[in-house]
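Methods: holo model generation. Sequences were used as deposited, without trimming of termini or removal of tags, and paired with ligand SMILES retrieved from the corresponding compound records. Each pair was processed once, and we did not select among multiple samples. The sequence and zinc ion SMILES for this entry were:
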Amino acid sequence: MPELPEVETVKSVIEKELGAATILDVCIKNPHLRQPVPKDFRESVIKQRIVSYKRIAKYILCFLSNSKVIVFHLGMSGTLRLEKNKLPTQKHDHLVFETSNGYMIYNDPRRFGLCLCLDDKEIFENRLFKNLGIDPFDKNLTGTWLKKKLEKRSLAIKQALLDQALIAGIGNIYASEALFLAGILPMRSAQTLSLKECHALIKGIRKTLSEAIAAGGSTLKDYRQPDGRLGYFQNKHCVYGKTGQSCPGCTCFLEKTKGIQKTVQGGRSSYYCATKQR
Ligand SMILES: [Zn+2]
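and the model returned the structure below.
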């Protein structure tokens, strides 16, 4: 599933490649995504120039010259592919945008993603965005803020991190990685985190996400960058998917500790070093 770093990468690439393109036409081959593509989508976007691009949590927003916004979510398996010239469509290509700077194709085998058009004034009234938590890079996300939010929550901190209404856009991989960097066990009750640990956790979240963005996002299963290149962050994970191995800089005696441990929380895998994380 594309996580925040992949989505940020996709947003940066399409921003760089398409820039201030004008949308000349849109071919909707299959409107049946998680939410159907609106019937008036084509009329709302054609002949419009893309004014700016923005990522909010795992949504990509393209702001248009008529004050409309195209909203993409890549769901479980969605990709945006860029092509300079018109090529034959591929299986699961659902929308094809023809722009003055080339083609952009939305492909999604599992169709859990979406492509909508909203009025820019109404974005935050839309139910997709209304209950979305704070962005990991928002300057208002501080240790003090997080500590207050976690005060009455007894669930495991790993699961609190996946709550999109708390912080939006931290996926399963990055939750494990951030907790490792902060030295906090994933099964710790959220309300037991000290202010110092909340600071460390935010630092860990930003570090792991920034590194993944710099590396072009992870390559896991369905993910491809829009220009077809693969991301390569997966080799740099500290603990995720590394059961039994030693963590970076680990001083524990591997044969005794059995290295990185895996546990399942809320049906999702978590990885941790029992020596470094408390
Ligand atoms: Zn270790």
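DSSP finds eight helices and ten strands in the chain.
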